[in-house]
Every structure is written in structure tokens, then in C-alpha cells.
Amino acid sequence: MDRYAVIGNPIAHSKSPQIHAAFARQTGQTLSYEALLAPLDGFVSAVEDFRAEGGRGMNVTVPFKLEAFTLSTRHTPRAELAGAVNTLAFGDDGILGDNTDGAGLVRDLIVNLGCTLGGRRVLVLGAGGATRGALLPLLDCRPATLVVANRSPAKADELVALFTPHAGRAALAASSFDALAGHRFDVVINATSASLSGALPPLPSGLYAPGAVAYDMMYGRGDTPFMAAARTQGAARVADGLGMLVEQAAESFTLWRGVRPDTAAVLAELRRQLDAG
Description:
Helices cover 39% and strands 24% of the residues. By secondary structure, the protein is α/β, with parallel strands linked by helices. The strands form two sheets. The protein has a six-stranded mixed beta sheet, sandwiched between helices. A six-stranded parallel beta sheet has the order 9-8-7-10-11-12, sandwiched between helices. The relative contact order is 0.13.
């Protein structure tokens, strides 16, 4: 039986085994998928052991995505630009590193939420790894403008310089949070980790254009702090990142197995479980 796993530290909370088991049942694939806790200083040896035991691929979560990038012997273009890897595929020719996070985000926005990105004004909050993974797939959707805003604008400037050659006709720009005042956006994506601690990015009011969508990459029961604030600030729709989690998993599954699972039923079941507490 082909073996797969998600590796991280911590890992017990991961929903990936449930998601991939559902994908396997739905597509008739015979495989096993487990959660693997790696010591903080033992990522490489844990991956090598799993591969030596016949493992075919792994998902990688915090805090190992940068190490996974280094371990990979080749990268997909989106992983190369992201500088981080969340999916490993093991083959006779080495280890392929991919980053499916941004593709999962875009698919959740467009397919699950019916959100148009082409020709729209898009704001991404944060300039860390989550944003790096999202920018290329977002730019591929040809927004009119894409602004990266960060508490430290210098980090946003670095990302804009890196991705400008891939911006096409989109106006790609960096900003501080304060400098957003007076600007309005159709899609606002929170890629910061603020919601994990119950905090909010210090945003000016008036950011949301009529009909705007506010999207938080984090998820939990009910609204995240960012989502709740967006509602009060005039966002027409808000969404958390549960769909992104399922869609990035589907991207990994497709890479490994050559078949794309239907995510709707899996996402609906996870949402039901989350709402039930």
C-alpha cells in the first residue's frame, strides 16, 4: 500500500489524515496517510526514514516548510518563488518540492466562494511565508491591482521586487498599514498570523469597496477576529481558510495520484464538525 504522511511539530491537530482518507475513498485510491511528529531538529532524518520505508510523498506544515524547500532536489515554479515547500513527492529521480497553498487559496476563492479576481483590486495583509506562497497564483488571476501591506513596509517592498517580473499587467505595490487609508479594495486577504492570538492587523477604516470579500487564511469556530472586524467595516462577505486547507490538500493529492478529488463534500463535512465544536 502506498504511504503518505503529513509532517510537522505540533501535528496532533492536523486534519490532513481525515481529508486524504476521504479523497482516497472517493477516488478509489488505495493508500495510507498518517500524521508524523518530527523533532524540531530532526526533520530531515524523519523524512529520509519515511522515504526509506517506502513513503511516496508528504505534506509539510509548520515549522518545516523552509527545510523542505532545502531538502527538495527540484522545485515547481510556484515553490521556487515561494521559497517554501508544503508538498514532497518522492521518485527515483529525487524529491520534488511543491507549494500548493496559493493554488488552494485561489481555488477556494473562485470555485467555492464564487469570488472574481480578474480585474479586481486585491489587498494581501502580511509579508511572510503565507503571502509568498499566495502571490504567484493570485497574480496569475490577473487582478487590476495587488497591494501587499505589512507592518514593516520594507518586507513588503522585498516581495514586490521579487514578484514584479511575474505581475503581468497587474499593478503590484507595497504599503504600510497606515498608508492604506483612503484606498478601497474588492478582496482583502489576511495572510498574517494575528488571528491565532486573537489580534488584528492595525488597519484604517474604509478599506472595503461595495460587495467586497474579506478572507482570513486562518480558521476556527465562527468568525476569526479579522472576519468579525471586516463585517463591522462593511465587507459584504467574509470567509475563513478552511476551504483553502481542503483545496491545497486536493492539489497535493492530484500531484501524487494523478486524479483530482471533489472537495465539496469533504469541505462540508469538516465545516459541520467545526461548527459542532
